[in-house]
Amino acid sequence: METTREVKAVFSVSGWDEQPYAEADGVKLAKARYTKRYRGDLEGTSVTESLMVYRTDGSATFVELERFEGSVLGKSGSFVIHSDGEYRAGSADSRGHIIPGTGTGELRTLTGETPYRVGHAPEHPVVFRLAFG
Predict the structure, then answer these.
(1) CA-CA distance, 90 to 73, in Å (whole number)?
(2) Could you give the 3-state DSSP secondary structure of residue 26?
(3) What does the DSSP assignment read for 64-116?
(4) What is the CA 108 to chain-centroid distance, rounded?
(5) Which residues pair with 57 in a beta bridge?
(6) Of 1, 25, 46, 111, which has the fewest CB atoms closer than 10 Å, so is most exposed?
(7) What is the chain's alpha carbon radius of gyration, rounded to the nearest angstrom?
(8) Judging by DSSP bridges, how do beta strands 124-132 and 110-118 pair with one another?
């Protein structure tokens, strides 16, 4: 039986590269690639590819794939997170889950999810609910 644990970390974002690829009547589609550095119960880095649609009111909807490499509670490997969310009034609310079968090394059987809210601060707290299968 899997036991779910709360795993806490803080991440910072760097290397943001956003490129628009379509625009009509004030609605813009864009893609971005950026990196995160995690510290805490998760230690490591990730690369994220994001697709966004910006509405005329400045809000946006996004979907992302993020590949994390490092350690979780001292176990090393990598995994991929699928996230989706909304950006409004200076903050993004997102829901992410680890895609089964993407874990490597000691994280091969890792499953879980994470909701989070980020703004424009330099660091962002995040809590994962994870289980090692």
Answers:
(1) 32
(2) coil
(3) EEEEEEEEETTEEEEEEEEEEEEEETTEEEEEEEEPTT---GGGTTEEEEEEE
(4) 18
(5) none
(6) 1
(7) 15
(8) antiparallel
